[in-house]
Write a structure and sequence with these properties.
alpha+beta, Jelly Rolls, four-stranded antiparallel beta sheet, six-stranded antiparallel beta sheet, 3 helices
Length: about 190
């Protein structure tokens, strides 16, 4: 049986590189705020998103179907760095932009069929420090991470089947945070 494995690597990117990347990606990526289906009704996502990847890496969640934009040079460079570091291929990235503390992500798992069984998700954080919660499905035990700018969080093995994760709202006055979640999408 494949175990659940979460690794947190602070300082995967240095502070200077993280700051430059935040500003470049904030202005250069094709951000969208889409409507998603949540508990049977349509609501606006509480964040901005965009999907980049290889041709044929369409992806869907919560009633949304994403066609990939061609790789942005910085996203491609980070992909190469991750593949070298983790010795795992990635062919797409979901970028999430949290503009302030009201932008968030509710409890969910990245368990869509096109990710296959036991996917590896490599998540790079840029900008504001945010709380990331991981909740075990059976025990309901919550583990909390404080994702710093330039950090890397890797979820693999049975994490998506054994756990849910979220990025909760905060009342603190905070600025932008961009999260880049690299994935391997299997074409259907």
């Amino acid at each position: 049986m494949t175990p659940s494995l979460v690794r947190y690597i602070p300082g995967f990117l240095c502070k200077a590189e993280s700051s430059l990347l935040l500003e470049a990606l904030r202005s250069e990526l094709k951000w969208e705020q889409r409507d998603i289906r949540l508990f049977g009704r349509k609501v606006a996502q509480p964040r901005l998103t965009c999907w980049y990847g290889d041709k044929g890496t369409e992806y869907g969640y919560s009633g949304v179907r994403l066609e990939p934009f061609a790789w942005h040079p910085e996203l491609q460079r980070l992909r190469n760095a991750l593949e070298n570091e983790l010795q795992h291929p990635f062919n797409a990235v979901l970028a999430n932009a949290y503009r302030n503390g009201r932008d968030s992500m509710g409890w969910h798992s990245d368990n869509e069929p096109e990710l296959g069984a036991d996917p590896m998700i490599a998540s790079i954080s840029l900008g504001e420090n945010r709380r990331f919660l991981l909740r075990h499905r059976a025990s309901k035990k919550i583990t909390e991470y404080h994702l710093e700018s330039g950090s890397l969080l890797v979820m693999q093995g049975k994490v998506q089947s054994d756990y849910q994760h979220s990025l909760p709202k905060t009342v603190r006055e905070i600025g932008w945070r961009i999260n880049l979640t690299y994935r391997q999408v299997f074409r259907r």
